[in-house]
């Protein structure tokens, strides 16, 4: 076989790609293995000689971590679910109108909504706290759900608008020829075709409500519906670093990360097809 049969550039690019992917996978596996291992170690063992397999495994960090997070996990679930439902209820009809309808101010309206994503949302915390206090929404789950719409809904409209725009227009027209109204054609034809995009946006909205720290920490108090992530921050001593229960910290990290991971595995096929229309 002569050297002419080889595409040196392609082989080098492929080898580099596999090398980078292998490094990233290995790096993440090592980190996850360490987190998992420390969650089963007693405190005395963690500060001994470095090792990956616990010598005296214990479930104490898991039981105490779950007890501490139990109510907060429910709050996180309600906030994540509510954020998803409200975001989809607003963004699906909004994105459909921006993608497939013509109306006055369509372009300006779309870019006005999208421009909300250009600002760091930390700038909105103080105005929202002040407004939520006046409206009685501060330190409530509905207040958290509505606050997240400030940046979740523009992002959802942006993604879904492109998704709806890529769907063939003749499919909707054919459904109306066969007796569907415009609304029933939307329900029976467009929505099923847009399922991957809707699932992807819903998943990202849920992750925002579940994982956010800034709004969760500033829009609730210790007596209110505190989500799970601020509790994790409390486990590391509120950032002081004076006394850290590493085993419980790792166990709580895995507990909080498990529901989104399961949700991703369930919706994986939809997520992979979301942007391939």
Instruction: Please give the radius of gyration in angstroms.
Output: 24 Å
Structural class: mainly alpha
Number of strands: 0
Quick check: average pLDDT? 86
**Unreliable runs:** none
Brief synopsis:
This protein has 277 residues and is mainly alpha-helical. The chain contains 13 helices and no strands.
Structure report:
The chain has 277 residues and is mainly α. It has 13 helices and no strands. Helices cover 72% and strands 0% of the residues. α3 packs across α9 (195-211) and α3 runs parallel beside α12. The two termini are 41 Å apart. The model has no long low-confidence stretch (mean pLDDT 86).
Descriptive key words:
277 residues; globular; mainly alpha; 0% strand
What topology emerges from the helices and strands here?
Layout: H1 8-38, H2 43-46, H3 60-100, H4 106-114, H5 125-135, H6 141-166, H7 169-177, H8 182-193, H9 195-211, H10 214-218, H11 228-235, H12 246-266, H13 268-272
